[in-house]
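All the exercises in this workshop are built on plain-text protein records. A record pairs a protein's sequence with a compact description of its fold. The structure tokens are whole numbers drawn from a learned vocabulary of backbone shapes. Once this layout is familiar, the rest of the handout is easier to follow. An example says more than a description, so a record of this kind follows.
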Amino acid sequence: MKTFYLLFLLSVTAAFSQHAKKNELLVPYRDGNLWGLCDTLGRVKVKPFTTGMSMVNFATTPPDFKGRYVIQKNGKISIIDQHKRVLLAETNLDSVQMYLFSKVVVMYKNNKKGLLRDFKMLIPVQYDDVEFAENESFTVEKKGKKGLVNSKGKLIIPIAYTNIYESWSQNSDENSNKFYWIAKNENSDGEEEEVTFTDNRVVGEERPEWYNPPVVGMKIQVTEEEENRQKRIGEKYGKVVSSSINANSGNIDMYIVKMSEGYGVYSINQDKIILKSDDNIEVCGSNNDYTTFLIKKNGQMGLVDETGKVLLDYEYDTIEVAWGNVCILKKGDKKGMFVLNSIYKPVKPKYKEIKILDAIPVSDTWQFGVFEVTTVAGKKGLLGENGVEYFKN
């Protein structure tokens, strides 16, 4: 038995919207230099009223999934909600960072970090670094030494250690009301010393299954049976060059084969070549439960699923797949996009750049894809996965 590596792309089936219900999500909308808010269809809900709104630093948080938006102007930072209610009054911070599914805001000032939770001070802006840890706690660092602040904002491990981590064995009992930490440091003899600390166990808020992104690459064991199957395919059709793994079963279901003339896709279930191309074929991802393939024809790229349905015509110079399900379409010096598993049509290449932002949750089962685009004229704005522009130049 031997080991080899399979690189494959799993579809992030819920990463972008497939929901037809009207939503309440409002995104930053720019009209010239002024910012307001609009819905995902581009209808302005809050007329442009301010400068300095961040188009990339906004987030939603359950249970109501209302938006929070950062405004930075005149050297001060504030945060508002989609009703223009002030959540954080103007303050002298360098920057802030919000996160999806978190009521924590990271604050930055003079190369120091601190935290707000529910817009109340949790950790003062006085540490060289602050990192999220288990049990809704945070490691804090000063001059190379670490400590730990718990969910109540209390420093339960002094800033005197080089490493802090949870005790896996002691924390395996989820019914225990205690949470165990191990702090390590070197003594004067250069030997490592361990100290155990305990805290009350915190029951975190449940997150949707899609919150944690899927694995994009995987190392698997190839059995003798699998080796023999590849050998039989090789003898009949050509050399196996890559494989596709079914996102539902986790098993190999198709192979890319280099034949005597061109390439083919061999289906294990159908026991035959189901797609052919004179040029290279690459596994792209899954679209509505069908595996898709990037295929080049007459020097142009297209996207075809395993049934032979053409999802993207052969008209693109290149197609690059990012985040497992966003296809960036390049034609000349312009870019467009296509989102697998989305109900929306491809966005034709018309932008200079497209940057993928975090999909914004609208409910426990629905996210909406938002992108930062740069126009040919050099103007930046937001674009929805539905192709609607949230800006006016």
Notes: The chain has two domains: 102-204, 211-392.
